[in-house]
Each structure stands twice: as structure tokens, then as C-alpha cells.
Design goal:
By secondary structure, this protein is α+β, with helices and mostly antiparallel strands. The chain is built from 20 helices and 32 strands. Bound molecules: zinc ion (2 copies). One zinc ion is lined by residues 143, 145-146, 148, 151, 156, 158-159, 161.
């Protein structure tokens, strides 16, 4: 029995999980941990939400709530997503606990005592009107490399260069906009260079590391390590346990990696064996594995080992099988064309095992992989449903229909014996691949066995045996069910929910989780009654990838609140309106036959803000309101729930910045459609029905939608607030 500690990178509590987090760290950790539990290893898996740091305080300042409110909100969301996805931690905690604070401070003080921390004075921006030091992210200015105007003090989002705040040109306080001045402030710096030689030896000795992880780490080491600040002027985070540092906090990157140790200690306390953490940290035979994305490598192969070396007596990472990135249809880690890739959203549409399958089969182990909806549908429908699910279901349903119980196994011929051998081969392959953290390869071996199962079933043709030789037919079905049983054991680390369900359908006792790898040896219970089998997976329909709707993204739509309505001075039929779209604009509209000026004054509208401005009878119109028109009637577009003026109606796309000529706008088809009760994802346009790509609205209501052939994308703002109408209007009415 081996002892193993599985460490999963700490997700930041500043937004929901998306597919990148799951395929990058959560899923590999879980597969690896489940497998090791199954083969009887002594293993624990820990992680938690990273609650500290300036991205959270910046979000909190913007939303005018405490950082704790933001962090807690996402921590709860993470905890739920983890449970819904079937990611099984021994402890999923957070960095905002008393225990974590104590462990972090203990490490800090020990490093200080051993001379690995040095106090230094450095210049930092201070805002006189805010009366505070400004951490990097609190300063904005022009990038010294590319000139981008909103570069942050830590990084330029335009050119990607890392920055130091004093390098910014025309730096401004991000909170109040005033010009900050540099002032001296004291901070502690960890002397990473103390560990340079020891780190090189350590990394070179680890022959089993993924090549890209090792090469990257050695490259950083070759450039030479420098001291790095581990405290900052902030009020949110772990307090610095030194007099005079009451207004400072420990830097988030320093305390987050300590989370692995503090979580293990917390786990041990919760288990009622407070010293048991030493089994995973102080016993050199325990191997620790760290699962994370490539942007996190340096923290786990250099910084965390440095802290551990400095502290002494604790195990260094045994392996850091970092993954590369999953690119989202060309856009790294962002929402793709109106289709959310956030896990909570995806879980409302797909079973967790469906997501787990795709994210394993497409895991970016050695190079970047791409998440595309087309590929998703293809792999789920052609591999998981047509091969894996199909073999399970045809075996179980044929047996149920013709026997109603598990048939007895008679004499075996060569083909049957070969099938049993094939099971052992698959088990060995999966075991070897998972032990080496080769998840895609392991998954492939499981699928190959399912494929083999189908070939076996076809070649023994039970449908032609059932009328002629029922005993022989029973034998081949028994062998087929034995393959099903092997699949449910082998697939358990990847797809635990369906594995348990198949195990039950096979009338096996207990659970796959409990019997583990021994499930291979447990015999089928011949003569046991079967229940009507249910298919494990259904084909998925993802409709259009959403990417088609890109042409609509050219429109920059905003919520507008009418401020004033006047008669146009030179045209009887026209109104002159002032509208707040985040700023006040002037608009001309021809609504006189449909609305009085007083009616309009209370309206919330949807405005195209980037059309080529038109001058109508001597007055410039700076925006165009959207309205549906049919049969001489007119209805104005409005949000389904109240949204503030200036809110972007992006429908999940990146809104256009460029000016759109009116001719281009006229080419776009936008219509009023009625959602159809009982037909999810369907929008009735009167003359035809179309399929919605995302988030079908509930039945019966009228919505504004972009239309492309037989597909539609319902217009929506933040929090999925849909766009509807202020009056009833003919279904299918054109919007312009
Ligand atoms: Zn730049
Ligand atoms: Zn300020």
C-alpha cells in the first residue's frame, strides 16, 4: 500500500468555475484520487478556495461590498459545483480560516528566524485622497511597452507584459482617479536565491516529471532566482505576525500554496487525529502530486519547494503533472459566443459524467486543447453514446428481454476466453496509465474495451442463438455482462455516476466505490432477476456553436433610459429625445403615431449605440432605438427585468466597438419570437420555428432574437436578463 497526497490547485473565489478549471486541475486530481482509493492506497485529496488577493478586493470595491462577501459567494458556488460534478475531496476548505492563518504565520516566522526573509524599504504608490498605499492592481496608466491606456500596475492586458507599477506612464489611482505619488514602504522579501542550487538538484533528480514542466522550471532556474516580496499594503488577507506590520497582509501567492499543508492539518483535526497530517507531510515515503494549469507551474516547482526547504522537515512535491490550457474555440478562457462555459450553467444542461468524459478525452495534458461545441457533440454522440453507452444498453436490454435474469455461464470457447483475457489487458493498461497520470490514454483504454465489447457482441450474435441454443446464448450474454462489469469498474474514476448505476443494473452488491479494483474478481450472480435497463447517456444537441452569430456581435446594444422627449423643430412627425445610455445622447425617432411624448418619458429602451450617426432635418441622431413592427403596430424592446442605463446587452458575445453602417445593420435579421411551451429551446416566428442556441426561455412569452436560418439567439444582458417588449406584437414581427 502506497501513501499519497493529492493536491489540487486552489481555485480563486472571484468567479464561477469554467471548463478550464475542471480539465486543468479538478478533474485530473479527482480521477487520480479515485483510482488510488480503488487500488487500496492510503490517500487524501485536499484543496480549497483562494479567498485573498487584490482581484477580490477590486471586485468588492466595485460592487461596494466587503471582500468577504465576494469570496464567500464564490466559495459556496465552488463547493456546490464540486459536489455536483462528483469531485470527491477529503477536504475542500478555504484560505479564510483561523487554521490557515496560524499555519501561514508559523511558516512565515520560521523562515524569518532562519534568515530566509529580509525586511526592505521600497517605493510604492500612495494615494493622498484615498489615504492609502495602492497595491499593483490599484494603479492604472499607459503601458511603457505598447502604450495601452488602461494597463494595470501588475500587468498589461493588451501586450501581456508583466509590469511594476512605477513603470506606468501617467499612473492614476484606480479607486478615485487622482495621481498617486511614490512613497517608501517596508515589506518582507523571501530570499529565493538561497534555494537555487538545491532546487536545481531537486528538479533534475525528478526523472518522472512531464517534460514541459521540467524544461520550464529549469529555464526559470537558469535565469537565476531573485528575492520576492511576500507582504503588501492591504487590509484583506493573512495578517503579518510582526510588530509594525499591522496594516499589511501576506501576499496571496505565498499563503495560497501553504493551503495544501494547512488543509491537511485541518483535515486531521476534523478526523479527530490532529497528528495524522504528518503521515502525508513528514513521512518521506508519502508521495505528493500537485495538479494545476501551466500558468501555475512556477509556484509549485520553485516557490512552494523553496518555502518547504526553508522550513525543513516537510516533503517536497513528488510530481507536478501540470496541464496546458484548454482554449475555448480560439478564445482562451472566456465566454464563447453566447454559450456559457461556466460549470454551473453547463450542469443545468448536461449530466456531470458527460462533462467529465469530454473534459478527460480532451484534456490538455501535453499541449493546449480546444473546447468546441462541434467537437463536444461529436465525441459525446459518437464515442460515449454510440460506443460505450450502446454496448452497455444492448447487452442489458437484450438479456432482460430474453432472460429476465442473469444467465448462467456454460462452457467457454476460444472467443469467450479471449474476451476475458481482453478484460485483464484493459485493466492493466488503465492501471499503468493512471499511475503515470496519463488520463487521456487511460480513458482511451476504457473506450477500446467498450469497442471490443461491441465487436464481441456482433461476432457471437446472440439474436441468432436465442431461438436455437438458449444455453449458448446465455453464455455469451454472461460474458458480455462480465465486460459491462469490467467497464463499470474501469470507468469509475472518470464517470463515477454512471459506473455506479451500471453496477446496480448488473445486480452487484455494494458500490464500485467500496469494492474498488476487486470488482473484477467478483462473480456475476447467475439467476438474479434483472430490472428493465435504462440507457446511461442520451445524444446531446448543442445546436449551432453560437459562433455563427458573430456577425450580430458588431452591434453595440445598451439599455437606455429616456430623460426627455421634445418635438423635432423641423419635422412634425419626429421626436427629439435625450436618452441616458451611460452617457446622455440625442436621438431622433419616428414614434409619433404610436406613443405620446409623456408615454415615452418613462420608457427603458434598447439602443444601438454604434450605428453611423445620421443627421435628420438638421439634427444629429447619436443612437437608434430598437422596435418591432407588424400590421401597422409597433412595440418597443425592453429588458425583462429592470437594468440600469448603459447596461450592455451583449447576448454573451464580445460587443462591437466599431461604427456600423446602416446598410450593414439592415442585413441582420432580428425578430420577435414566442417561446413554445413544452418545446424547450424552440422559438415560434409565425411562419417558421427556430432552435435557440442557448438558454431557451420559458414557455409562452415574446422575446427579441437574432435569427440565422433555422437558429436563433435570444438577446440578453447580464444575469441572463432577456429582452422582451412593452406591448403585445405579432409573432415573427421584424425588429429594426
Ligand atoms: Zn502593453
Ligand atoms: Zn485614490
Amino acid at each position: 500500500m502506497a501513501r499519497i497526497l493529492v493536491c489540487c490547485a486552489w481555485p480563486y473565489a472571484n468567479g464561477p468555475f469554467h471548463v478550464g478549471h475542471v480539465t486543468g486541475s479538478l478533474l485530473p486530481s479527482d480521477i487520480f484520487a479515485r483510482f488510488n482509493r480503488m487500488i487500496g492506497n492510503d490517500i487524501i485529496m485536499v484543496s480549497g478556495s483562494d479567498m485573498h488577493g487584490t482581484p477580490i478586493t477590486v471586485s468588492a470595491d466595485k460592487a461596494k461590498v466587503s471582500p468577504e462577501t465576494i469570496a464567500n459567494k464564490y466559495h459556496e458556488m465552488h463547493t456546490k459545483a464540486i459536489s455536483d460534478l462528483g469531485i470527491k475531496f477529503d477536504l475542500y476548505t478555504s484560505t479564510h480560516t483561523r487554521n490557515h492563518e496560524q499555519v501561514t504565520q508559523d511558516l512565515f516566522l520560521k523562515l524569518l528566524e532562519k534568515g530566509h526573509l529580509e525586511k526592505k524599504s521600497t517605493p510604492q504608490f500612495y494615494c493622498d485622497s484615498c489615504k492609502r498605499f495602492l497595491p499593483d492592481r490599484y494603479v492604472e496608466g499607459n503601458c511603457p511597452h505598447c502604450g495601452y491606456e488602461r494597463a494595470r500596475g501588475d500587468q498589461c492586458d493588451n501586450c501581456g507584459n508583466d509590469l511594476n507599477a512605477p513603470e506606468l506612464i501617467d499612473a492614476k489611482c484606480q479607486i478615485c482617479g487622482s495621481v498617486p505619488a511614490l512613497r517608501e514602504t517596508e515589506h518582507y522579501f523571501i530570499q529565493l536565491q538561497h534555494f537555487q542550487e538545491e532546487l536545481i538538484e531537486y528538479v533534475e533528480a525528478n526523472k518522472h516529471w512531464r517534460l514541459h514542466v521540467k524544461a520550464f522550471t529549469l529555464n526559470v532556474l537558469k535565469e537565476g532566482l531573485k528575492e520576492r516580496a511576500i507582504t503588501r499594503d492591504l487590509s484583506w488577507g493573512v495578517p503579518v505576525p510582526v510588530k509594525g506590520f499591522e496594516n499589511k497582509r501576506i501576499y496571496v501567492w505565498f499563503d495560497a500554496v501553504i493551503g495544501y499543508l494547512s488543509a491537511t492539518k485541518e483535515w486531521a483535526k476534523l478526523e479527530g487525529k490532529p497528528d495524522d497530517w504528518t503521515k502525508y507531510w513528514a513521512d518521506p515515503s508519502c508521495k505528493s502530486y500537485y495538479f494545476l494549469g501551466k500558468d501555475n507551474i512556477v509556484f509549485h516547482t520553485i516557490i512552494w519547494p523553496s518555502i518547504l526547504m526553508g522550513y525543513g522537515g516537510l516533503n517536497l512535491p513528488y510530481d507536478v503533472p501540470a496541464n496546458q490550457f484548454m482554449v475555448i474555440e480560439g478564445q482562451k478562457f472566456s465566454k464563447s459566443m453566447g454559450v456559457s462555459i461556466d460549470i454551473p450553467d453547463l450542469l443545468t444542461r448536461f449530466k456531470p459524467d458527460i462533462l467529465r468524459y469530454y473534459l478527460t478525452a480532451n484534456m490538455p495534458e501535453l499541449k493546449d486543447s480546444e473546447f468546441s461545441w462541434q467537437d463536444f457533440a461529436l465525441r459525446i454522440n459518437n464515442e460515449l453514446v454510440a460506443t460505450y453507452g450502446n454496448f452497455l444498453h444492448r447487452t442489458l436490454s437484450f438479456t432482460f428481454k430474453n432472460y429476465g435474469e442473469i444467465p448462467a455461464r456454460g462452457a467457454l470457447d476460444e472467443r469467450d476466453k479471449q474476451a476475458l483475457t481482453r478484460i485483464s489487458v484493459a485493466a492493466d493498461e488503465v492501471k499503468a496509465a493512471l499511475s503515470a497520470c496519463e488520463f487521456r490514454k487511460a480513458m482511451k483504454s476504457v473506450m477500446d474495451l467498450a469497442q471490443y465489447g461491441n465487436q464481441y457482441f456482433d461476432s457471437v450474435a446472440p439474436w441468432s442463438l436465442v431461438g436455437t441454443d438458449k444455453a449458448r446464448c446465455g453464455t455469451v450474454l454472461n460474458i458480455s455482462m462480465t465486460i459491462c462489469k469490467a467497464l463499470s469498474v474501469l470507468a469509475f474514476p472518470f464517470m463515477p455516476f454512471s459506473s455506479e448505476s451500471v453496477w446496480k443494473q448488473l445486480r452487484m452488491d455494494g458500490s464500485v466505490e467500496d469494492v474498488g479494483w476487486k470488482g473484477f474478481e467478483l462473480p456475476l450472480k447467475e439467476g438474479e432477476k434483472l430490472e428493465k435497463p435504462v440507457p446511461q447517456f442520451a445524444k446531446v444537441e448543442v445546436g449551432s456553436s453560437g459562433a455563427d452569430f458573430q456577425q450580430f456581435a458588431a452591434l453595440n446594444l445598451k439599455v437606455g433610459k429616456v430623460l426627455d422627449v421634445q418635438q423635432h423643430p423641423n419635422a412634425d412627425k419626429l421626436y427629439l429625445m435625450k436618452v441616458d445610455v451611460g452617457k446622455t445622447i440625442t436621438m431622433i425617432s419616428g414614434l409619433k403615431d404610436h406613443y405620446t411624448a409623456d408615454e415615452l418619458k418613462t420608457k427603458t429602451l434598447i439602443i444601438v449605440t454604434n450605428l453611423e450617426p445620421a443627421t435628420i432635418r438638421g439634427v444629429k441622431s447619436e443612437g437608434m432605438l430598437l422596435a418591432a413592427e407588424a400590421d401597422g403596430k409597433l412595440a418597443l424592446l425592453m429588458p425583462d427585468k429592470d437594468l440600469p442605463a448603459g447596461t450592455q446587452i451583449s447576448s454573451g458575445m464580445e460587443p462591437g466597438e466599431k461604427v456600423v453602417p446602416f446598410k450593414e445593420f439592415q442585413k441582420l435579421e432580428i425578430r420577435a419570437g414566442r417561446s413554445v411551451p413544452g418545446e424547450p429551446s424552440t422559438l415560434d416566428l409565425g411562419i417558421r420555428k427556430v432552435k435557440c442556441t442557448v438558454d431557451a426561455p420559458e414557455g409562452g412569452k415574446l422575446y427579441a432574437a437574432f435569427v440565422l436560418g433555422d437558429k436563433a439567439l435570444v438577446l440578453q444582458g447580464p444575469d441572463k436578463v432577456k429582452i422582451t417588449f412593452d406591448r403585445d406584437i405579432t409573432v415573427g414581427a421584424k425588429i429594426r
